[in-house]
C-alpha cells in the first residue's frame, strides 16, 4: 500500500536520518499499546527509508523526534493544545534547550499515532522536515469503513478476492494481515470498521461470531480502530425465538438489551450497529407498522449505556415509486427531530445508488435536528469494478463541497455531517483492493474523511509519491491521469446526468435497453426515458417534482434546463434531441461527443501510462497496462452499446464526422 517505506537515495536518506535520530517518549509511556503502535511504525518507516533504526529514548538529543502530550511535554514547550482536540496532532520543528528537535504533539496517544503517520507521510513525500509545522484535527468524529463481507467470505460488490476476515480460523488464528489492515487505516485516521454486510445475517450476533469479532477488535485496538457490526432487525425472531421483532414490544427490547450487554462483555469498546432496514427486502420496523425512528431508537436505547451508536441507513425505495430518487427524503425528512441522540442517519452521496455522477442527496442539510453520515462507495460497483482505473477523490470532493444552501449558501455537505462511511474495496487479493489504483480510493476516502477540505489532487499526488515513485515527472503524469479518470468514466458510461444504464444484477457493462425487470424502478428505461421525443428523467415541477426536495434556491435553479449544470441536465430534465447545448451542438450531438470523449480519455490514459515504463516497477506497470487495455475495450463497449441504442430509439442520423458503432 502506501506504507512501503522503500530506501531513499543515499543523500535523502542521510538527511532524513538526521531528523529522526531517536524517538523520545516520557519514561514509562511505552506501556500504552497505542503509543507502542506509533513507535512501531516510526521505527519501521525510518529504518526502511534510511536504513537506520532509531532508538527509543527518554532524553532528547539533537535531531530527536519527541512524542509529547500535555502531561509529558518538556518545560518551556508551549503548544496550542486546545485546538488539537482528542485526535488532532501537531508536527513542529522546535529549539529545545538549545537542541533542534521535532515534536509530534497531541492530547492523547491516539493523536500521537495519527501524528506519527503524518510525519511518515511528510517524510515519504519529500516535505522539508527542517521547517515542519503541520497542524491537523479531524472535524468528523467518526470515519468508518463499511465492509459488505458475508460470513461465508464472499463480499457483496467486492472485486478484490474474498473477505479478509477468515471467520473459520478466528478467533484462534489472527492473520498478520489484520495488523497491516489496522496500520493502513490508522495511517489515514480511519477510526471504525463495520465488519459485516449491511444485508446482515443474524448469525453475526451469536456468541461464536462475537468471539471472532472480539479477536479482531483486540488486534485493531492499538490502532484506534473500533469494531462495529451490521445488525439484522429480525434477529430477535431468528436467534431469540420470539414471535415478533416489533421495536415497541417489551420482549423484543429486552432481547436487544441482553444482546447489547453480551456484546459489550466481549468487546468493551464496541462501536455500535449499522442497520439496513426496510430496504431491498430487509426486515425492519415498518413490518410492524412502526417508523424508522422507532426502530433506530430502540437499538439506540440499549447501546447508549455502553456509549454505542446506531447508524441507520436511509437507502430506501419503493417498487411503485413515481420517482425512485425521491423516496429516501420522503421517508426520512419528516422524522427529523425524532431520532435519539446516539443515532446517525447514514445517507448515500446521491439519491439513487453510487452512480458515476449524481447530485448530492437532498437529505443533507434537510434534517438539522438529526446527526447524519455521508456514505460513499469505495468499491466500484457501478464504475467498472476493479478493472477500470477510476480515482474517486474527485467524486468524494464533489459531494463534500456541494452547497446544500441549507440554511444558507455556503452550507456544504461536509458541514452538514458528523460521520463519513466508505463501502470498503478490500479483499484477499495480494494488492489488497483488486487493482493497484483502487488502493488510491481507500487512501482518498480516509484522507478526505479526516480532512474534508483536502483537495483530491493533493491527495492523489501524495498517494503516488508513497506508492509508486517520487520522480517528479512520473508523479505529475500519474496524478494527471488519475484526476482525469473520473470524468472519463462519466463520459463513457453515463454523461450529462444519465444514470442507471448498467447491466442487471451484476451491474457490469451497458444495458440501456432493459425494460422488463420485475420491478419497474430497476429498469434502465425507467431512468433514461429515451424515445423519439427526447431523453432524460423530468424531476422538475413539470415532471416528478422531486427537485423540490432541495433548498428553494437550488430547486429553482435546477427546475429549468437553462440554469441546470449540463453535467446534471438529464438527471433533472427530459429534453428533445435537438435541445441546444452551451457548445452550440444539439443534445444528440453532445451526447455522442461525450461518449467519444470518454473513450478518447481512456486512450490518453493508456499513452500516459505507457510512457512510464521503466519508471514504475515492471510488475505493477504490466498489471496496470493490462487493465487499461480492458478498460479501453469496455469504454468502447459502453459507448457503442449506448449510442446504438439511443440512435435506434431516437431515429436520428449519426452526427456528421462521427463513426457509427461497429
Ligand atoms: C446497492 C447494491 C446492493 C447493496 C445496496 C445497499 O443496491 O447493489 O448490493 O446491498 O446497494 O447499499 O444496501
UniProtKB/TrEMBL annotation:
<protein>
    <recommendedName>
        <fullName>Xylan alpha-1,2-glucuronidase</fullName>
        <ecNumber>3.2.1.131</ecNumber>
    </recommendedName>
</protein>
<comment type="similarity">
    <text>Belongs to the glycosyl hydrolase 67 family.</text>
</comment>
<dbReference type="Pfam" id="PF07488">
    <property type="entry name" value="Glyco_hydro_67M"/>
</dbReference>
<dbReference type="Pfam" id="PF07477">
    <property type="entry name" value="Glyco_hydro_67C"/>
</dbReference>
<dbReference type="InterPro" id="IPR037054">
    <property type="entry name" value="A-glucoronidase_C_sf"/>
</dbReference>
<dbReference type="InterPro" id="IPR029018">
    <property type="entry name" value="Hex-like_dom2"/>
</dbReference>
<comment type="subunit">
    <text>Homodimer.</text>
</comment>
<feature type="active site" description="Proton acceptor">
    <location>
        <position position="353"/>
    </location>
</feature>
<dbReference type="Pfam" id="PF03648">
    <property type="entry name" value="Glyco_hydro_67N"/>
</dbReference>
<dbReference type="InterPro" id="IPR011099">
    <property type="entry name" value="Glyco_hydro_67_C"/>
</dbReference>
<keyword id="KW-0378">Hydrolase</keyword>
<keyword id="KW-0858">Xylan degradation</keyword>
<keyword id="KW-0624">Polysaccharide degradation</keyword>
<dbReference type="InterPro" id="IPR017853">
    <property type="entry name" value="GH"/>
</dbReference>
<keyword id="KW-0119">Carbohydrate metabolism</keyword>
<dbReference type="GO" id="GO:0005576">
    <property type="term" value="C:extracellular region"/>
</dbReference>
<dbReference type="GO" id="GO:0046559">
    <property type="term" value="F:alpha-glucuronidase activity"/>
</dbReference>
<dbReference type="GO" id="GO:0033939">
    <property type="term" value="F:xylan alpha-1,2-glucuronosidase activity"/>
</dbReference>
<keyword id="KW-0326">Glycosidase</keyword>
<feature type="active site" description="Proton acceptor">
    <location>
        <position position="381"/>
    </location>
</feature>
<dbReference type="InterPro" id="IPR011100">
    <property type="entry name" value="Glyco_hydro_67_cat"/>
</dbReference>
<dbReference type="GO" id="GO:0045493">
    <property type="term" value="P:xylan catabolic process"/>
</dbReference>
<dbReference type="InterPro" id="IPR011395">
    <property type="entry name" value="Glyco_hydro_67_aGlcAse"/>
</dbReference>
<feature type="domain" description="Alpha glucuronidase N-terminal">
    <location>
        <begin position="1"/>
        <end position="119"/>
    </location>
</feature>
<feature type="active site" description="Proton donor">
    <location>
        <position position="280"/>
    </location>
</feature>
<dbReference type="InterPro" id="IPR005154">
    <property type="entry name" value="Glyco_hydro_67_aGlcAse_N"/>
</dbReference>
<feature type="domain" description="Glycosyl hydrolase family 67 C-terminal">
    <location>
        <begin position="433"/>
        <end position="657"/>
    </location>
</feature>
<feature type="domain" description="Glycosyl hydrolase family 67 catalytic">
    <location>
        <begin position="124"/>
        <end position="432"/>
    </location>
</feature>
Amino acid at each position: 500500500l502506501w506504507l512501503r517505506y522503500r530506501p531513499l537515495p543515499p543523500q535523502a536518506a542521510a538527511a532524513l536520518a538526521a531528523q529522526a535520530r531517536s524517538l523520545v517518549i516520557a519514561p514509562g509511556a511505552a506501556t500504552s499499546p497505542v503509543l507502542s503502535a506509533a513507535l512501531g511504525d516510526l521505527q519501521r518507516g525510518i529504518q526502511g527509508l534510511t536504513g537506520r533504526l532509531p532508538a527509543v529514548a527518554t532524553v532528547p538529543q539533537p535531531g530527536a523526534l519527541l512524542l509529547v502530550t500535555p502531561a509529558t511535554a518538556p518545560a518551556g514547550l508551549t503548544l496550542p493544545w486546545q485546538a488539537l482536540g482528542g485526535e488532532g496532532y501537531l508536527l513542529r520543528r522546535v529549539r529545545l534547550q538549545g537542541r533542534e528537535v521535532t515534536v509530534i504533539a497531541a492530547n492523547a496517544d491516539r493523536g500521537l499515532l495519527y501524528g506519527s503517520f503524518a510525519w511518515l507521510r511528510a517524510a515519504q513525500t519529500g516535505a522539508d522536515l527542517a521547517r515542519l509545522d503541520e497542524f491537523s484535527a479531524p472535524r468528523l468524529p467518526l470515519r468508518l469503513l463499511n465492509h459488505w463481507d458475508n460470513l461465508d467470505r464472499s463480499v457483496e460488490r467486492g472485486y478484490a478476492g474474498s473477505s479478509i476476515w477468515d471467520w473459520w480460523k478466528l478467533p484462534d488464528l489472527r492473520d498478520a494481515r489484520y495488523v497491516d489492515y489496522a496500520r493502513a487505516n490508522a495511517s489515514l485516521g480511519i477510526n471504525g470498521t463495520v465488519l459485516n454486510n449491511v444485508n446482515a445475517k443474524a448469525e453475526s450476533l451469536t456468541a461464536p461470531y462475537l468471539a471472532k469479532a472480539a479477536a479482531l477488535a483486540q488486534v485493531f485496538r492499538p490502532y484506534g480502530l473500533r469494531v462495529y457490526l451490521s445488525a439484522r432487525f429480525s434477529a430477535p425472531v431468528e436467534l431469540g425465538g420470539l414471535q415478533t421483532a416489533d421495536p415497541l414490544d417489551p420482549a423484543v427490547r429486552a432481547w436487544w438489551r441482553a444482546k447489547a450487554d453480551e456484546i459489550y462483555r466481549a468487546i468493551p469498546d464496541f462501536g455500535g450497529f449499522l442497520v439496513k432496514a426496510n430496504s431491498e427486502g430487509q426486515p425492519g420496523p415498518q413490518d410492524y407498522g412502526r417508523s424508522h425512528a422507532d426502530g433506530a431508537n430502540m437499538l439506540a436505547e440499549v447501546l447508549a449505556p455502553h456509549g454505542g451508536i446506531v447508524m441507520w441507513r436511509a437507502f430506501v425505495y419503493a417498487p411503485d415509486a413515481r420517482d425512485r430518487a425521491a423516496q429516501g427524503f420522503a421517508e426520512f425528512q419528516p422524522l427529523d427531530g425524532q431520532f435519539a441522540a446516539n443515532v446517525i442517519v447514514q445517507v448515500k452521496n446521491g439519491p439513487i445508488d453510487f452512480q458515476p455522477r449524481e447530485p448530492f442527496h437532498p437529505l443533507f442539510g434537510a434534517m438539522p435536528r438529526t446527526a447524519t453520515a455521508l456514505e460513499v462507495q469505495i468499491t466500484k460497483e457501478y464504475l467498472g469494478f476493479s478493472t477500470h482505473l477510476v480515482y474517486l477523490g474527485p467524486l468524494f470532493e464533489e459531494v463534500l463541497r456541494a452547497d446544500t444552501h441549507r440554511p444558507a449558501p455556503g452550507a456544504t455537505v461536509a458541514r452538514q455531517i458528523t460521520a463519513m462511511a466508505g463501502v470498503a474495496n478490500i479483499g484477499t487479493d495480494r494488492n489488497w483492493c483488486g487493482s493497484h489504483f483502487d488502493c488510491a480510493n481507500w487512501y482518498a476516502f480516509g484522507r478526505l474523511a479526516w480532512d474534508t477540505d483536502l483537495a483530491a489532487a493533493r491527495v492523489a499526488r501524495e498517494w503516488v509519491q508513497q506508492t509508486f515513485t517520487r520522480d517528479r515527472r512520473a508523479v505529475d503524469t500519474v496524478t494527471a491521469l488519475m484526476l482525469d479518470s473520473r470524468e472519463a468514466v462519466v463520459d463513457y458510461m453515463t454523461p450529462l446526468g444519465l444514470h442507471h444504464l448498467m447491466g442487471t444484477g451484476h451491474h457490469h457493462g451497458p444495458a440501456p435497453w432493459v425494460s422488463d425487470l420485475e420491478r419497474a424502478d430497476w429498469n434502465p428505461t425507467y431512468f433514461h426515458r429515451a424515445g423519439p421525443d427526447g431523453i432524460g428523467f423530468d424531476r422538475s415541477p413539470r415532471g416528478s417534482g422531486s427537485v423540490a426536495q432541495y433548498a428553494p434556491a437550488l430547486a429553482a435553479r435546477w427546475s429549468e434546463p437553462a440554469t441546470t449544470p449540463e453535467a446534471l441536465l438529464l438527471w433533472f430534465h427530459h429534453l428533445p434531441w435537438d435541445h441546444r447545448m452551451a457548445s452550440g451542438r444539439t443534445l444528440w450531438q453532445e451526447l455522442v461527443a461525450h461518449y467519444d470523449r470518454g473513450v478518447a480519455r481512456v486512450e490518453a490514459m493508456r499513452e500516459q501510462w505507457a510512457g512510464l515504463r521503466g519508471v514504475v516497477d515492471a510488475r505493477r506497470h504490466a498489471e496496470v497496462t493490462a487493465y487499461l487495455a480492458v478498460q479501453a475495450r469496455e469504454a468502447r463497449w459502453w459507448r457503442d452499446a449506448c449510442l446504438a441504442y439511443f440512435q435506434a430509439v431516437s431515429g436520428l442520423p449519426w452526427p456528421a464526422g462521427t463513426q457509427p458503432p461497429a
